[in-house]
Amino acid sequence: MTEAKIRINLKAVRARAGLSLAQAAELTGVSKAMLGQIERGESSPTIATLWKLAKGFQLPLTAFIEDLVQTTGSFAPAQARPIQFQGSIGFHTVFPFDPLFGSETFLMTLQPGQVHMSNAHDTGVVEDVFVTRGAMEVLIAGEWQSCRYGDAFRFPADQPHGYRNMSAEIAHFHNTIHYPKTALFETTDRDATPVKSDKAK
């Protein structure tokens, strides 16, 4: 189901942007062949590939794995959706991206001994990490910071960062990603067109 959602969303995002596969490849850094395979359902992207797509199209991560929502003032319980990419960190979407708040929230799972590294996100992106089970470490500004149950960090995510679990127990943490108010907020309407990079012209 996750692969199908990604395939449908990627194709829709590219169509709204009016980009060919070649232009989308230049914009995102994901090869034309890989983009085509993802859209045809012949390949499952890694979480690193999804972040390249999100950064290139100036969209939140959940734009490719969920239906974007607009807060309406009613408060309904969020339904966590489990997602697991082979050989990668496991996570549930707790709250998809909401332009009213400019953030999206995940429940992340780190297996014992697992390390997950993340490239820099767009300028101004900030992450919150709140440990809900076990112990882990967060790589911030080149240094690993220890976090245990109940600990929290807020750090700039527009630089390389990472998470690791060096214990013998599973670690869970909430990860909220805050996006700056840039063109991202103009692309949350289903009929909106993402801003094209000069590279795609």
TrEMBL record:
Keywords: DNA-binding, Transcription, Transcription regulation. SMART domains: HTH_XRE (SM00530). The keyword Phosphoprotein does not apply. InterPro entries: Cro/C1-type_HTH, Cupin_2, Lambda_DNA-bd_dom_sf, RmlC-like_jellyroll, RmlC_Cupin_sf, TransReg_Diox_bact_type. Residues 10-64 form the HTH cro/C1-type domain. It holds the Pfam family Cupin_2. The keyword Transcription applies. This is Transcriptional regulator with XRE-family HTH domain/uncharacterized protein YaiE (UPF0345 family).
